[in-house]
Amino acid sequence: MTDRNVLESPRLVIELNRVRANYRALRAALPAARIRFAVKASPVPEIIRLLNDEGAEFDVASIGEIELCLVHGVDPAVLCYGNPIKKAADIARAYALGVRRYAFDTEDDLLRIVEHAPGVEVECRFLASTPASITPFGTKFGCTPGEAFRLLVRARDLGLIVAGPYFHVGSQQTDPTAWRIGIEQAAEISKALVDKDIEVRSVNIGGGLPISYATAAPELGEIATVVNTAVAEFLPAGAGVVVEPGRALVGNAGTIHAEVIGIRNAPDGRRWVYLDIGRYNGMAETENEYIAYRFVTERDGDPVDEAVVAGPTCDGDDVLYQRTKVLLPTSLRAGDRIQILDTGAYTASYSSVSFNGFPPLTVHVSGAERE
């Protein structure tokens, strides 16, 4: 994606072969599910083209993501405008571009869809009573299950095609029981819809599939067993399943290559390690220290000690880790290279345009888009 020298720092390197392997592993683990990639996790053209070739669908959150997919050959029929927060003009634009699937969670958004995208297929997002995830959404999205039922009936009555209920267990969900809870609640909505003579085409179980960072996460097979069992136990016959992974497909496919700018011993006695990448140019998920990335240095094997890790800007909030215990070699020096592992998701896509004059994180890819 860039012609800059491959040694530029910082840079994100994406291994396409890993993305492909992740997709195929998920397809094998959830054979009955339609896989809909959450583009926001890594809107990289090569990833879009690879997953399109593999047969994925795409969850898009904006007109920009819709246009990105279309310009790289994706059929609008496999796009779902899954962001429940949409301007009327954006709904109309998406409809003009051929998008025929939409998600919503309020009556206002439903009525905008009816007006500007007549006859499309819709999913209603409800707030499932699942355990908190590592990076939770809170109550920003999703209505009550009862409201989801009411709104889907209203959608049918207003001439839209009902797909079914939709829930999300929260990003980086490490409790597999969350999916069982969500599927059981979705099933209750689905059965009520069937009683109203509304066919439930699909239940969208969202994303949230975790990967291991500094702390291990449940294996995909463990979560898949929970999902497959719950689907068979609770969902009405004929109802398909949609899963919307982002992190699970691209997270472990990326490595950030960065550099140590300097080391400082602060007046409180703590050692600070400053990197040329921080919260504003790729490391946004360190906010609240929810995601604990792993570091690899050229001096691994030397004695280690705790370090506060910070970014390069003059913003006091540009600190990656000061509560999380990060052990780095005591021999680290300015100019040393450092790798940040499993950074393929929500890094470059979160990077600011040019905060403090620092450029956005650039992306390089390796491996083939097609086998």
UniProtKB/TrEMBL annotation:
Keywords: Lyase, Pyridoxal phosphate. Transmembrane segments: none annotated. Pfam families: Orn_Arg_deC_N. InterPro entries: Ala_racemase/Decarboxylase_C (IPR009006), De-COase2_N (IPR022644), Orn/DAP/Arg_de-COase (IPR000183), Orn_de-COase (IPR002433), PLP-binding_barrel (IPR029066). Its EC number is 4.1.1.17. GO terms for molecular function: ornithine decarboxylase activity. Its cofactor is pyridoxal 5'-phosphate. Residues 17-250 form the Orn/DAP/Arg decarboxylase 2 N-terminal domain. Belongs to the Orn/Lys/Arg decarboxylase class-II family. This is Ornithine decarboxylase.
